[in-house]
Specification:
There is one protein chain. The two termini are 33 Å apart. 48% of the residues lie in helices and 13% in strands. The protein is of the alpha/beta class and 228 residues long. Helix 4 links the parallel strand 4 and strand 5. It contains 11 helices and 6 strands.
Length: 228
């Protein structure tokens, strides 16, 4: 999806501040592996532009007037061919991270992230991996999973019994933040095999992204907060 071996990654930039949005558009457009195909100033506009441009990745602000980034992410995740959603947040908005993850966000970055890291993050999300910024640690996500009210549609431990032993192993490693490549190395299997397991896990648990799988792993107690 990115790089010289394929077409540029198609990106949609969503932020209610025009100057900030223009900066992201210019930055991302400067990388030959990325193509900015649209921009939007709120969640509702993001849904419309996404339907018209079919982006691979949406760079999404969380707090916007009207429809916010969480609701827009939920709508995008429910489409037939959902894009990856990279949510931008700040330290004082960390309480929104868990809600965005449950909505189907693929990754999170802080708004003060260096430009090169933002470009790299878009490529990671385009590749299908979940991404958490160094400042938004897995421990933080675990804390929210433990403290947040259990959503009505959350997977319960009973749902996990439909997973095979290997799929359960893969889910644990997803929750610990490992990429497909890292999981393959740890479990001594091929990366294609890991991708197959991930697809089956998402299908069996009725999830739209591996980031949601992280939430389920903590909510169900499969991975314990603070566990190595």
């Amino acid at each position: 999806m990115t790089g010289s071996d394929g077409p540029p990654c198609r990106v949609l930039v969503v932020d209610d501040q025009a100057l900030v949005r223009a900066g992201f558009v210019a930055l991302l457009g400067s990388d030959p592996a990325l193509e900015v195909v649209g921009e939007a100033g709120d969640g509702a506009e993001a849904i419309e532009v996404a339907a018209a441009t079919h982006p691979d990745v949406v760079v999404m602000d969380i707090r916007m007037p009207g429809m916010d980034g969480i609701e827009a992410t939920r709508h995008l995740a429910a489409t037939d061919d959902p894009p990856g959603v990279l949510v931008l947040t700040t330290f004082d908005l960390d309480e929104y991270v868990y809600a965005a993850l449950r909505a189907g966000a693929s990754g999170f970055l802080l708004k003060d992230t260096p430009p090169a890291e933002l470009i790299a993050a878009v490529k990671v999300v385009a590749g299908g991996d979940a991404l958490l910024a160094p400042g938004i640690t897995r421990r933080l996500i675990a804390d929210f999973a433990r403290a947040a009210p259990r959503p009505a549609d959350a997977a319960h431990p009973e749902a996990l019994r439909f997973l095979t032993d290997r799929e359960t192993e893969v889910l644990v490693e997803i929750a610990r933040g490992l990429s497909n490549t890292e999981i393959a190395e740890k479990l001594f299997v091929g990366e294609a095999t890991v991708k197959t397991h991930v697809g089956r896990i998402l299908a069996k648990l009725n999830l739209s992204s591996r980031a949601q799988a992280v939430a389920v792993a903590y909510e169900s107690g499969l991975v314990v907060p603070g566990e190595p």
